[in-house]
Amino acid sequence: METAHSREQAAPAALTAFARFALFGGGVGITSSFAVAALASWIPWVLANALVTVISTLLATELHARFTFGGGGRATWRQHAQSAGSAAAAYAVTCEAMLVLQQLVAAPGAVLEQVVYLSASALAGVARFAVLRLVVFTRNRSQAVPTVRTARSVNAAGARTATRAGPAVLCCAA
Known about the structure:
Blueprint: H1 4-39, H2 45-68, H3 77-104, H4 110-136, H5 138-144, H6 156-165, H7 167-173
């Protein structure tokens, strides 16, 4: 049974995780956007985006495993594989956004391309956070969240009675 106290404790954990996700994922995402733009001058944009997505997903998954979702250790192969699924969806969203931009604007400038790319990445990032928190790193999170136990205080008279009554009273008193 969930109490108001446990709901209050869960909310800051989610907000803290989201702030870390935005910091690490956003930092990798912004760096990735510049890497895609630079690579796209040498190779087709879709290929540049695919290459950068693979590298940035590996890096971001490691950062999220170590810092964002409380694992403290390296990401497992299972977590990398599950994270890759959400990254593939994010890749599709960014590609679709850029293809739509190309259809709507004949020669978009670099600033407009960055705005569209980062906006699509941000929308995909929110969905990715939910998937990573609820599916990929759920085991790490459940191990990291301490169990809150409450105990009733026993006054001195109650303690004497419990001692005389035996273990059954102690079991039921807590």
